[in-house]
Amino acid sequence: MKKSDTWSVEDAEKLYGVTRWGGGYFEIGPNGNLHVTPDVSNDKMRIDFNDVIAEIKEEGIQFPVVLRFHDILRSQVALLNETFIKTIEEANYQGNYRGVYPVKVNQMREVVEEIVDAGEKYNYGLEAGSKAELLTVLAYNTNHDSLTILNGYKDEEFIRLSLLARKLGRKVVVVIEKFSELLMLIKWSKKLDIEPIIGLRSKMTVKGRGKWEGSAGDRAKFGLTITEIINAARLLEAEGLGHCFKLLHFHIGSQLTDIRAVKDAINEGAMIYAELHHLGFKLDYVDVGGGLGIDYDGSKSTNDSSMNYNIEEYVADVVFGMKEVCDLEKVPHPTLVSESGRAITAHHSCVVAEIVGEIRSNSATMDTSYLADEHILVTNMRLLVTAIDNQENLQEIFNDASQYKEQAAAAFKLRVISLEELAKIETLYWQIMESLQAKMQSQKFVPEDMQELDFSLSSQYLCNFSVFQSAADTWAIDQVLPIVPLTRMNERPNVNCSLVDITCDSDGKIDQFVLGKGISNVLPMHKLNKGEEYHLGMFLTGAYQDVMGDMHNLFGRLNEVHIFSHDDDPLDFYIEEVVTGSSVDDVLTIMQYHPKAMAQSVKKLIDGQIAKGTIKPREGVKWTDFYEDCLKGYTYLKT
Ligand SMILES: *Cc1c(COP(=O)(O)O)cnc(C)c1O
Fold first, then answer.
1. Which of 99, 305, 472, 609 meets the CB 3.0–4.6 Å disulfide criterion with 615?
2. Which atom of ligand 1 is nearest to the CA of 212?
3. CA of 579 to the centre of ligand 1 (A)
4. What is the per-residue pLDDT across 225-246, written as a single tens digit (0 to 9) for each?
5. Where in the chain are the domains?
6. Parallel, antiparallel, or unpaired: how do β-strands 197-201 and 245-249 relate?
7. Over 62-77, what HEC string results?
8. pTM of the predicted model, to two decimals?
9. CATH 1.10.287 is the classification of domain 376-454
10. Which fold has domain 70-349?
11. Any ligand 1 atom below 6 A from CB of 202
């Protein structure tokens, strides 16, 4: 690797690959700060993250924060719907598109409201997968022309609520996941004399690849087998409800990485639809489920965190795939429903957190000068330091140094060397490793053992956030999320670091990073300047991550800042709303504590010390107030 002093934002783009995963929304600005264009239809619009950070500080909001760009949500809703409309026209497809947003992907009220509002003109609807979600969509999806799709396991209450929705004039489709649900639905429909709209979910043989491939196949948890579908349809017919069976549903998994799985599923689903038509069940809708992926690592590949297609190809495969089978089978084109969640919400939110310190295994050093009575291991290690410059075989030095270090550890346990000698050997060892790392830069071939050097010599940056609250999937399922510094990208990054969070859990770390050239276990960043803040952004957190976080170590929900762009000034933005994150008081209450009583008992203890004279009364009042203030405060580090 040739080192030159020039460094441009183009180099930074190559390194961080922002435009590869940015979905057209993010890019590195000419000033080296990250910029966002939240409304792609207005490409003059640019918001500088550094300005957003300044504004947040000015408002006195503490970091870490979640930033929500409502314009991005709107843009994604428009993109999905417009792509379907355009493709349907191009294909001369006879049915419509009636998409629904599955609220489980991000149930935040503000998110759901924005999506419903942006989707109004497309008759875009909502999908629910549980009773709580059903109660939500009942209240929020008030557009009578849009669909409400009900998936998930159902009880009697669920079924009755769905029938209430029919009475309210909604196009609510109850999707049967399990045969017994159908019997419940028939019973209540007769009892209340309300006709349901019924969908049947098919267990597919096509499996999606990737982390969610268990959503299809014989062992899938949801859906009816082909035999059950036919039996269900016949039962409905016998009960005089055959005409209520209107929708065929399938969902082969989330984050489909390979477009071939989509093609195969559409083909299989279309065949089932056509066969049902031949059997006399004339359905109006085919619901292709979710699965439209997000290219988290920007590699456009079938990696678990990527996808080998884009939204246009996905939509084309759905529309043309359905049309082809229907035309061959001479059946009408059904209205298409899809339940994309991840693709709608992933881009719109990100987490901004501050680096508050650096941890290095080799940061402490000590005087290593020669002492006449020192142990031979110390002498040998020192000789290696001087040998580096005229030694061709760097691996030999690496091997020797590693061996001496191991021997020193054993020798210390046997009391052969002193604690001070052990420390000297460590200091010399790290000195040798740093010289080797520097030398390796000019070598064409680097032996495998030594490739690890970059990682073992890298620092860990301590980041004021909790992986378990803000990036649950990186911990639980090794999801990679793009992380970049928000400023200084016009400077050459001069430290390679992994990240650790502020929980007391050794799993609270991130050591997989998206870089332009692939996944790396260190992220190139900048040396921290004294007195200067350094913020990182973690991106594409809007789907699942946002709502799945837990309160490990009692770190609670983040402060949320909702950002809107100004129509009249493309470079300006405003903070429309701040949703305050959890206070210590909030998280303790959830865990069944009584913060008021806690404050009282601490006050009593302080009063006791005042009575004994160990705390002065004036001081005691201050301590009492301080305890109460901290209870009301934010759960993260105050910087
Ligand atoms: C989770 C889920 C979705 C959403 O999937 P995405 O991959 O996020 O688009 C859609 N439909 C059903 C039935 C689901 O369970």
1. 609
2. 7
3. 27
4. 999 999 999 999 999 999 999 9
5. 70-349, 376-454, 586-632
6. parallel
7. CCCEEEEEHHHHHHHH
8. 0.91
9. no
10. TIM Barrel (3.20.20)
11. no
